[in-house]
Amino acid sequence: MAPSSPTSSPKQRDPKKFPDGNGTAQGAWGRAWEVDWFSLASVVFLLLFAPLIVYYFIMSCDQYSCSLTAPVLEVVTGRSSLSEIWARTPGVTARAAQIYVVWVAFQVVLYMMVPDFCHKFLPFYVGGVQEGAVTPAGTVNKYEINGLQAWIITHLLWFANAQFFHWFSPTIIFDNWIPLLWCANILGYAVSTFAIVKGYFFPTNARDCKFTGNFFYNYMMGVEFNPRIGKWFDFKLFFNGRPGIVAWTLINLSFAAKQQELHGSVTNAMVLVNVLQALYVVDFFWNEAWYLKTIDICHDHFGWYLGWGDCVWLPYLYTLQGLYLVYHPVQLSALHALGVLLLGLGGYYIFRAANHQKDLFRKTNGHCTVWGRKPRYIECSYTSSDGRRHRSRLMVSGFWGLARHLNYTGDLMGSLAYCLACGFSHLLPYFYIIYMCVLLVHRCLRDEDRCSRKYGRDWERYTAAVPRRLLPGLF
């Protein structure tokens, strides 16, 4: 859920090898050992311009009613200057700093000090202490899975305040939106800087570090695989899920409250955005233990890409639809609203059902049924760095027989639904689907590049059996 990484596959060198618990050579895991010029240019571009992109979108809504062209036209025609636009932008305030410090501290307390109890009474929910994947150094980290509990507690307090206590206005997030942006940037850069210093001087596990020799690449993509403080505070899990994703639904609720305050009602478009995005957020926390097996945890290092991205990029650009609807309250026709709802729910179903099929296939080693039939698969083999031969199975049934990454297709359908809820008058709400297309297509290519190197000719057999990546019959 962070900014997309550079769009090339940095070359690997053959370092001193040691196997992890899955037989993966050191040179085959995580980020690159060496950085080509295009990857470096991509990294520098993102470091320079990603913060400006976030600022431009938020400033456009604050000063130009979400018009992406108006600021440029004003500067080009001389009606305004960059310094004047900047001068009109609210700065950080003591109030915003207080809100942000309390928010982050509260999420740290929920993460570190409140053991999960949801798994004790919610059927099928996996929480509590869980083990992650084996790291390249052979370490198996343990995690306290309590994100769903943190989300529930946070939102119960939010609604209790709105209904009974009235400690703060439900519009508090919108009212301090730009000052909070500067606070989020401070935290994002602080944690990213701390992560690289820690990686160089006092890593959690030195064998889980990678250094390219290029500072900019190390800073952005990270040095440490799993930086931790103490036994339980895991930087990657905390910042991936909290505080950004817990805040996502609160931000949308604050936008809905502001729409009510300004326009006297909450439109059905705002309701759809809140409901569909809340479904995604709750699903994320319901499956937080499953998330320990994903590319973010099992492959990515922790650097600016995740640290700043989860503090700033995610909460500010993933919520653009709700922000837009505050300035442009869209009331959809019944047919349009129904179409958006069905697209969002259909995308969610495909996303979740596809992932469930793969998990079931892996857990049972193929001894299960998918769509009422025994699943078909391709037998694959690969050689680990210690020379041992391993066997694996790649499923070509169910959703995974239609496309190699159909779970991403479902994700994109949901992303498009959020945007379509905002109508067709402005481009700004559609940034999200454009970004998600770039992110997920690039993630497909990253994943398939690793699989191709791992399985060789067996991967060619698999891609011949399932020729499409995302769209059956097209791509």
TrEMBL record:
Keyword Lipid biosynthesis included in the entry's annotation: yes
Subcellular location per the Swiss-Prot or TrEMBL entry: Endoplasmic reticulum membrane
Annotated GO CC locations: endoplasmic reticulum membrane; nuclear outer membrane
Transmembrane segments: 37-58, 97-114, 180-201, 269-286, 306-327, 334-351, 415-441
Keywords: Cholesterol biosynthesis, Cholesterol metabolism, Endoplasmic reticulum, Lipid biosynthesis, Lipid metabolism, Membrane, NADP, Oxidoreductase, Steroid biosynthesis, Steroid metabolism, Sterol biosynthesis, Sterol metabolism, Transmembrane, Transmembrane helix
Ranges where the record places region Disordered: 1-23
Pathway assignment: Steroid biosynthesis; cholesterol biosynthesis
Pfam families according to UniProt: ERG4_ERG24
Membrane topology designation: Multi-pass membrane protein
UniProt xrefs under InterPro entries: ERG24_DHCR-like, Sterol_reductase_CS
Record has Endoplasmic reticulum as a keyword: yes
BP terms from Gene Ontology: brassinosteroid biosynthetic process; cholesterol biosynthetic process via lathosterol; positive regulation of ferroptosis
UniProt catalytic activity: 5,6beta-epoxy-5beta-cholestan-3beta-ol + H2O = 5alpha-cholestane-3beta,5,6beta-triol; 5,6alpha-epoxy-5alpha-cholestan-3beta-ol + H2O = 5alpha-cholestane-3beta,5,6beta-triol; cholesterol + NADP(+) = 7-dehydrocholesterol + NADPH + H(+); 7-dehydrodesmosterol + NADPH + H(+) = desmosterol + NADP(+)
Polar residues composition bias: residue spans: 1-10
Highest taxon, organism lineage: Eukaryota
N-terminal signal peptide: none
EC number: 1.3.1.21
Enzyme kind, highest EC tier: oxidoreductase
GO molecular function: 7-dehydrocholesterol reductase activity; cholesterol-5,6-oxide hydrolase activity
Oligomer and partners: Interacts with DHCR24; this interaction regulates DHCR7 activity. Interacts with TMEM147.
Family affiliation: Belongs to the ERG4/ERG24 family.
Role summary: Oxidoreductase that catalyzes the last step of the cholesterol synthesis pathway, which transforms cholesta-5,7-dien-3beta-ol (7-dehydrocholesterol,7-DHC) into cholesterol by reducing the C7-C8 double bond of its sterol core. Can also metabolize cholesta-5,7,24-trien-3beta-ol (7-dehydrodemosterol, 7-DHD) to desmosterol, which is then metabolized by the Delta(24)-sterol reductase (DHCR24) to cholesterol. Catalyzes the last step of the cholesterol synthesis pathway, which transforms cholesta-5,7-dien-3beta-ol (7-dehydrocholesterol,7-DHC) into cholesterol by reducing the C7-C8 double bond of its sterol core. Can also metabolize cholesta-5,7,24-trien-3beta-ol (7-dehydrodemosterol, 7-DHD) to desmosterol, which is then metabolized by the Delta(24)-sterol reductase (DHCR24) to cholesterol.
Protein name in the entry: 7-dehydrocholesterol reductase
This protein's encoding gene: DHCR7
